[in-house]
Amino acid sequence: MKEANSASGANKPELRISEDGSTTLYLASLDEHYHSYHGAIQESMHLFIKEGLAKLPPSESLNILEIGFGTGLNALLTLIHKPASTIHYHSLEKFPLGNEFTRQLNYPELLGDEGLRLLFNHLHDSEWNREVKINEGFYLSKHLCDFRDFSSELKFDLIYFDAFGPDKQPELWSAQLFGNIASMTAKGGLLTSYSAKGTVRRTLEAAGFKVERIPGPPGKRQMIRATRQ
Fold this sequence. Notes:
Blueprint: E1 14-17, E2 23-27, E3 32-33, H1 40-50, E4 61-67, H2 73-81, E5 86-93, H3 99-102, H4 107-110, H5 115-125, E6 131-135, E7 138-144, E8 156-161, H6 175-183, E9 185-193, H7 198-207, E10 209-215, E11 222-228
Parallel strand pairs: 4-5, 4-8, 5-7, 8-9
Antiparallel strand pairs: 1-2, 2-3, 6-7, 9-11, 10-11
């Protein structure tokens, strides 16, 4: 999920339980949670699965780009709910979480399938900077990098824009970076984000997206879904 600072010293995340019983992490240096305190699973389901993945037209293959691998929750939910025969899932993360954090995250157990724990651990343990087959039809490429340094010749069908908020990490919400995203997004491709700020909407529109403000998850009145023109 989010791109945080180094998970050590003063920036070490703190495990917390959100209102739906699922775990999240709190980063004191930014005074931010990796997932909504109102419910980690229900937030990700709403933002990225219901209003993103489920809105794509039927396809045999999808390319997905996630800004901020973080806890791996978005990747896990995508694996569970994948509508296509094959998904190539690319996720960017500058500061990966260690196993001392990821093994405490309770998403597989709450999602009701003991076998998900093995898949969830595989998501986190898989090698960086190469494509890894997680299971049949789901291929993960974790990129250990700063989002500002990333480029790809792929055209992505769906963007999970899950950086910390523009007030906390404004450098990740710039016109230049949204322009880079637009160049990597297929025509008709979607971008979803929890931020519905006017500056974010205008920056996306200037980059070539049609932007909708739609109802957000619990605790968030609105979110953004943008379509590449």
